[in-house]
């Protein structure tokens, strides 16, 4: 049986007013023919959100706030089943989580269900408001949980804050999510690679991971919050990037893709441990790998510190290849390679 | 609905009638015409109705006002599609008593016999009501469930409905194995899934297999609504809520059709939950109300602010959960409560607000105080639902704001031990569901089951509020005990008041609907500890007699 390829899934979360809707609208504004389905799962602000988003897309499904009394059988589950059953699946499914829900909890269906593949847990962080939100006795713990579960922290309204504020926010949220990519989202603008792999939108026929290194734009700066000036454009934090979305290469400004290849097999447990604790900030990783003592190839997918491993159904292959996508610099690449070398059988 | 139209007046002659009307607390005869009560009194008081038919079916029965369950869900009717495997006895819609299962072997046996009744080898076996806290270290794991079948998918929902146990066939269908790296998949020391699942993502593949079974969408299923009506009838209930409703067109059609049937024994009060359906707002409730009847009443609006105490998702103030668990979840951001509530308040509707933890209660009191200061409204009857951990200061604020409280008194029995030892500790457990303090402050009080979370049985709930006794027999907060009279008031007029229906139901008085609970025993005469054992013969709804099914 030939199951259709999974639908790339991104969950966008963040506290009230953090800029979730702006992120979504910016994505939809630059969708350029890609079919993006959006599930809006907010409450209170909902009518505003849904209307704003609906102006950009005709594929918006509005949901009730997730009721924990019906974590099974709620409308979100029904909507997901309906989308998975569509004859023509969307190129991307984006779920906007409610301002007080933990987006990674929803996102994890993309690490289990065969119909979905998680690409990112994007948490919007309002530079001006997050410090107060984190200190709030009522919602601070929830905001912390949201940030800690992110694979991408999208800093919004950074252009309205001074450099010292931005640095302080980057330091505090970066510490809460030590492996998340920290990006600025000027007017909600994020590199498309946050949402989609190159292959998802450049060459949808080829669903396998690229086994040759992909040349991305050069890394454009350290991802540590050390620069003295506030960012003026979207992209990797404090990068020099200008407008994105203009041509395919530029869609990935600030994000680097590199691959790791070996003709050896990995120790499964060691690889799991290595990937889940990579000491770098990354968007995601994927690959086809061989495990010691197992004749089958396995597909590996890593997002937000969690890993999906499944037999690939391909013929056994020689060796292993993994692709890493993130705001890397040269040192990060060496670090990753070192960790993987240590996990070889 | 059409009330049970009787051209003639009918007089029910009884052993005793507890009217809940303080001006005339007791009677023996009640005259009914066109579905309403026309006279209450002794034989001599019936002289004016000389040509009435006298029905002495109840000559040795005791009548109370039809009981009112102010917080339950139609989902109770859906659950009975699955096999019950709870620790406590529970009566099904046909009146059959399902014995509580005290050992895991008993659970396995019941599952096996249910499996044997399924039509084919692939049909999933669904069960509900399981509660692992009563089995110590024993687990209903994959190995145990595979004894029932390792090939047929098996899903056992826990009593909390937030967790489930599944067998190896279900794990395989869900794609869950030792490599699965998501929250909510419980694993043993060797890293193998034990079959216990929780959280949305882990349970989603199960939802894919079992579909809408066991879901809150029960209003759309006529069979589930009918079963719900029978469960209520067996407990002497004549009015019950569906306290989370999306008021969907399909659900409303079903409710209208089922309740219009004269043989359906229940008045239903669906509460619109904007969190279930963001469309329509207050106008949706008004539109539904225009098509309502005296068996289908609209007006309450439900909001859920936090989670559950036993699931550690209720929002608590310091010192919080005794095990140091992180604080619970908000389902509505506190900053948005005022904006959520106000449009419904301004539309004249009544708010029913789920606040389990005391921090949730606090932010709701803040929001209601601000709302009522800006937009005062006489007799609004906004009601705190559950309100389990409110302290004295919060009760005083609730009283000052004119709120009603519907307490979850059944928790004292079903989870009282767990609360004392695992969730909030002995001191807070003792103050849970402080109904006596609330009454002392003049707060209108109701008590509830939240069925299907606990069994729909107001006389049992009244017993819980009177005895405040856990399943192990420990008494929690003796000072918060209600008297039997207060508890009986809470399950009749008290609950009717919280639904804004006390002018038509809740007591036996001329002019009110002829809704009665027909009892074998006199609840005001039995010892308080025996209140739960009062036997229900059946009900009368709008003058029509509904005997409970044979047991």
Output the radius of gyration of chain B. Answer: 23 Å
CATH domain class name of the largest domain in chain A:
Alpha Beta
- How many structural domains of chain B? 2
What would CATH call the architecture of the largest domain in chain A?
A: 3-Layer(aba) Sandwich
Q: How do the SSEs of chain A run, as a string of H and E? A: EHEHEHEHEHHEHEHEEHEEEEH
- The total count of strands of chain B amounts to 24
Q: Overall mean pLDDT score of chain A?
A: 79
Query: What is the CATH homologous superfamily assignment of the largest domain in chain A?
Result: P-loop containing nucleotide triphosphate hydrolases
Count of the separate structural domains of chain A: 2
Tally the helices of chain A: 10
Rg of chain A, alpha carbons: 19 Å
CATH architecture of the largest domain in chain B: Alpha-Beta Barrel
How many strand units of chain A?
Answer: 13
Structural overview:
By secondary structure, chain A is α/β, with parallel strands linked by helices. Chain A has 2 domains: 196 residues, P-loop containing nucleotide triphosphate hydrolases (Rossmann fold, 3-Layer(aba) Sandwich); 86 residues, CobW-like, C-terminal domain (Hypothetical Protein Yjia, Chain: A,domain 2, 2-Layer Sandwich), CATH 3.30.1220.10. In chain A, 26% of the residues lie in helices and 22% in strands. Chain A contains 10 helices and 13 strands. In chain A, the strands form 2 sheets. An 8-stranded mixed β-sheet of chain A has the order 3-2-4-1-5-6-7-8, sandwiched between helices. A 5-stranded antiparallel β-sheet of chain A has the order 9-13-10-11-12, with helices on one face. In chain A, a hairpin with a 2-residue loop joins strand 11 and strand 12. The radius of gyration of chain A is 19 Å and the shape is globular. About 18% of the residues of chain A have low confidence. Chain B is of the alpha/beta class and 551 residues long. Chain B folds into 2 domains: 129 residues, Diaminopimelate Epimerase, Chain A, domain 1 (Roll), CATH 3.10.310; 289 residues, Metal-dependent hydrolases (TIM Barrel, Alpha-Beta Barrel). Helices cover 30% and strands 21% of the residues of chain B. In chain B, the strands form 5 sheets. In chain B, strands 1, 2, 3, 4, 5, 22, 23 and 24 form an 8-stranded mixed β-sheet that branches. In chain B, strands 7-10-11-12-14-13 form a 6-stranded mixed β-sheet, with helices on both faces. In chain B, a hairpin with a 2-residue loop joins strand 23 and strand 24. In chain B, helix 2 runs parallel beside helix 3 and helix 16 packs across helix 17. The two termini of chain B are 29 Å apart. Chains A and B meet through helix 2, helix 3, helix 4 and strand 12 of A and helix 5 of B.
